[in-house]
Amino acid sequence: MLARRALALWRRIAGTSLSENLNNCKPFCAPHSTSASTQESLEEIRARIFGNHIGNNLRSGRKLLRKRLIGEKVASYYPEPISKIDPMFVDMDLERKKMKLDKLKRRGKAPPKKGQGKRATKAKKR
Predict the structure, then answer these.
(1) Which residues have CB under 8 Å from 89's CB, separation 6+?
(2) Which of 3, 14, 16, 47 sits CB 3.0–4.6 Å from 20 for a disulfide?
(3) Is residue 74 part of a domain?
(4) HEC letters along 44-85
């Protein structure tokens, strides 16, 4: 609507026909259609510059990557171990576990050292 008024005003001032005005206006007018490849490349460039997602209906980790990291929040959730705070503190569960392992070692029933289990002995026999 505004363009028509501007052209009508231009025609009155210049005293020329509408078709001549349109021909003169072409360098200043925006192109009506662009080729598909140009449009795609423009979208890719826009996406790269502004960090936008090109909607191609494929899954991407974009949403997840935009979220804030929560590592510190998770780490601060668990309290610091008491053994680090007070080295003189004795953890009874850990002591009980060590005592049981000592008993099993004396009887020869303790688990084997790393790399000396059932699978490793089978491989050596072949």
Answers:
(1) 82, 83
(2) 16
(3) yes
(4) HHHHHHHCCCCCCCCCCCHHHHHCCCCHHHHHHHCCCCHHHH
- Quote the number of domains for the chain: 1
Question: Which percentage of the chain shows pLDDT scores above 70?
Answer: 71
Task: Give residue-wise pLDDT tens across range 45-97.
Answer: 888 888 776 677 777 777 788 888 888 888 889 888 888 889 899 889 999 99
Q: Does any domain span residue 113?
A: no
Among residues 83, 108, 105, 85, the alpha carbon closest in space to that of 94 is found at 83
Domain residues for the domain of 66 are 41-82
Determine the Cα angle at 67 with ends 64 and 71, to 5°: 100
pLDDT for the residue 100: 98
Instruction: Quote the CA–CA distance of 104 and 107 in Å, as a whole number.
Output: 5
Question: Is 78 domain-assigned?
Answer: yes
Whether residue 93 contacts residue 101, with contact meaning beta carbons closer than 8 Å, is answered with no
Distance CA 82, CA 89 (A): 7
Task: Collapse the DSSP code of 117 into the 3-class scheme (helix H, G, I; strand E, B; otherwise coil) and give the result.
Answer: coil
Alpha-carbon span 93 to 100, nearest angstrom: 11
Position 59 in a domain: yes
